Amino acid sequence: MTAARQSPFRAAEAAFNRLNAEQQRIAAALFRRLSERTPGGRDIGHPTRADELAEIAGVTLAELAAVADLFRTPGCALLVPATPKPITADGVLDLSDPGLIHHWPRLAAWVEDEQELAQTYRLLEQNATLWHQGRMDLWGTLNLALARDWYERAHPTAAWARRYGGNFALVLKFLEASASGRSRVQHRRRRQNRRSRVIAIGVIAMAALLGVLSGIAVIAHNQARNRETAASQHMAEAKQQQQRALDLQRDAQNQQKIAADQQAQAQRAQQIAGDARDAAEAQLNETVTGLHDKLKVIGRLDLLDSIAQRAQAYFDAHPPGPTEWNSLHSQGVALDNRGDVLFAQGNLAGALTTARAALAIGARLTVHDPDNTDWQAELAARQRALGLMLKAQGDHAGATAAFQQERTLALALVARAPDNAKARDALAEADKNDGDMHLLSGDLAGALASFQEELRISERLVAADPADARWQRDLAVAHDKIGEVLQDQGELTGALAAFQHFRAISERLATLDPADVNRQRDLAIAHEKVGTVLQTQGDLPGALQEFEQYRTIIARLTMLDPGNAGWKRDLALSHQWVGHVLDGQGDLPGALEAYHQAEAIQQRLVNQDTTNADWHADLAYSQSRIAEIAAKGATPAGLP
User: Fold this and answer.
1) CB-side exposure of 203: number of CA atoms within 13 Å?
2) Cα pseudo-dihedral 620, 622, 624, 627, rounded to 10
3) Residues 6+ apart with CB under 8 A from 271
4) Which of 175, 220, 269, 581 is surrounded by the most beta carbons within 10 Å?
5) pTM higher than 0.90, yes or no?
6) Which residues contact 238 (CB under 8 A, 6 or more apart)?
7) Rounded CA gap, 337 and 288, in Å?
8) pLDDT tens across 475-511, in order?
9) Spatial distance between the Cα atoms of 248 and 242, rounded to a whole number of angstroms
């Protein structure tokens, strides 16, 4: 790490050492709230309102600001906004660079400690809930010691607890009841000890009495023998009873200790099992998603389907509990992957069912933790997926509603983090889908405005990171959409320029990674778009060249993955475009042959899913063109 990079953290450490003990506690609470480590081990920021931070620390806004200002100065600059901007109740504080968390050892230690404290709180809340339901006993000595240590380290407040569950009142009630129960046990032990002392005193008194009797027996030995024997028997019985009482007391204490140890072991085992399950499911989620992305690039829907089914089968057999949020998140990601595969295969009914299940999980997660921006972004993406599926089914009203929900979530993300690339990307996707629905309804002006906003966002993202291929693709798609609107408005010169931008970016990306089938498809579609404008302008040779490029690429992709219904549809459309040009050039047999090839593919798609409105429209168009050309007396090329 360079000296310039080290300087803020030396300044931060120096600033922290100048604080008194109470202010150091406030600083710790402040940075713990603003820092977070994801299940994958990535350090991220957690922007939070100042009044909420004060409530978490249990101090006034002025006391919080006095501490925070030391870390907003130009020499330190770990927090934003920087000084001299004042801290207001509704103002948001954030880390200036979450990626630098591990460079300040104290902050890294706070993040680790916060994870442990949160984990202990979740265990407390789970045990308190089970106790409240009558399914678990109160905590004993060992666990109460753990709770005291947690309380002294966390200094928890209701505001702090909301981040990890929120039922703070029940947790306090559970701990108070456990402590009271422990006091009753100790009181019972003291009472047993007093009883033992009374018995011992009685034995001593009896022994003294027997001594007196023994003295009298010396004087009157024969007369007192029977009394002495009886007293000896009573004494022996008393000693036996005392011994039995002591044995019973020790047994009870041993049983109590064994029960407490077993309870503690069971709770530790439960916690370990829960942690192990979260870790295993997080690894499963990461592995499946990684394979999904890689196989999607090379176009293997068969393998994607197999992996997605296995992941779904796991969660069907091991459904998450009502408060197992990480496990529930992993299940939602598995459903996302499954729905993606079903949609690509053309199974709209199955894809819609899966998408709605994933959306329901996303809604539960964001209600549980409204401040989790990753979950908010995932919910927006799931609204987008649902909208695309409804659109393909012809339910434009449902699709519009889903896209509006997507845009609302994206706008909220951008408002919370204006410079966050993920939030900007989500808003760009929302603008694209919004423009598509305007286009479907014939509102060209509204569509153009949405696509131009998408273009502006994409240009900002590409300028920030030109090497990011995803944002390059988003920029290409924005040019494509603008070209579609200009083409519908009759502005062919502008449309051709937009489509040529689309083609240039797509060709560059496809060249960088020829094995990525999605990039190859983008390039094919770009050739198609350029070809349509050239055909309208009367450049039939140029148009035919573009359409042949389109058909060649799509035919190759379809051979790689015959189960991909989207590529089959593209191949059929490529035959249609070639047929258009051949018809315009007077080659009626060639045109008829191209339309017959399109019809054969489209008929198979319709038979596969009779609910897909787009596929029915494609088939009807090819059949009408075949009828028109056949009416002119033409036969397909190669036939007499």
Assistant:
1) 15
2) -140
3) 119, 123
4) 581
5) no
6) 199, 202, 203, 206
7) 8
8) 999 999 999 999 999 999 999 999 999 999 999 999 9
9) 10
